[in-house]
Protein 1
Amino acid sequence: MRAPLLYVGGTLSSRRLSLEPLTPGHADAMYEGFADPALYLWVNAEPPKDEDDLRGRFARIAEPYAPGGALWLNWAIRFNEAGAYAGLIEATVRPDRIVFLAYYVFTKFMRRGIAREACTAVIDHLFRAYDAAEIRADSDFRNVPSRCLVEALGFTRRTRHIVTMLRGAPSYDYRYRLKRPA
């Protein structure tokens, strides 16, 4: 039996980015990016109504100790040089060390390698600090950039799964996994 999960906080970094542990205080600086309806094209969520709505969401997910013994790890993605926020990385670490990864890159920063750079830093951290056995990610089959990203990161597609209706059409998610390196 493994020991209970303990939160390993702190900022992660890469060549261009700092990944800051998410706090409700990030809401004002990140609201514009999260308010963009284009960000939700393949996600079953709606933009926040205002900064207070986003602050409330961040307050709910910023506490790392989640129900059932899991950890919620969330990082605000920030450019080192310009200081602008570019998105969010979320990871849920279950007690069995299976991790679920999700990410948002704000529309104006897409197609610049930000998600790949940020996810690489988080994946390395999850394997080192949390002894992750496997990392999983789901992507709507129509979201080609997201599918290309997880495949470029080394994830393999496990299954196709009908999740729900998304804006009036069936939403098929591809389920991916990345095994711990041997």
Protein 2
Amino acid sequence: MNRHRLHASTHGLAHGHTQGLAHGRGPARWQRRGLQATALALLGSGVGWLVVHYAFGAGAGELPHPAEPWLIKLHGLAAFFALFLLGALAAAHIPQGWRLSSRPRHAAQRGSGVALCVLGALLAFSGYLLYYFAPESLRPALGWVHAALGLAMAVLALAHGRRRRF
């Protein structure tokens, strides 16, 4: 068994993961699929809440729409999964990608990867503030900042994932 495979197997990594990233294939399949499903849940529940809240509910001067609390609960649940997946990426994909980004073929990934990490931290922090600390007078503005960060994260994540294919 060569040293690379031995290293991967002793750390419990799937055979294809370490070599996959080394060959420009990105995170492991379970991470990629988990991120895609979680991103869809976050984007769908976040945009859904904004539409319901501002078109039909409390943001439109009406009583809160019955879907509002369910959309926020789904959004919060998806956020926990996103934090878990970010931790999984921090353990394997990010360090390996950082090493590979010194190669010209992968250099553009470093900037978008760092931006994704920063956006993820800002989203977690602004979501925490919205849930626990934001006074009512600041909630709408902070909510729009959080929504803009979320949309920027979605766009940048697509660009980051697609760059590796070129």
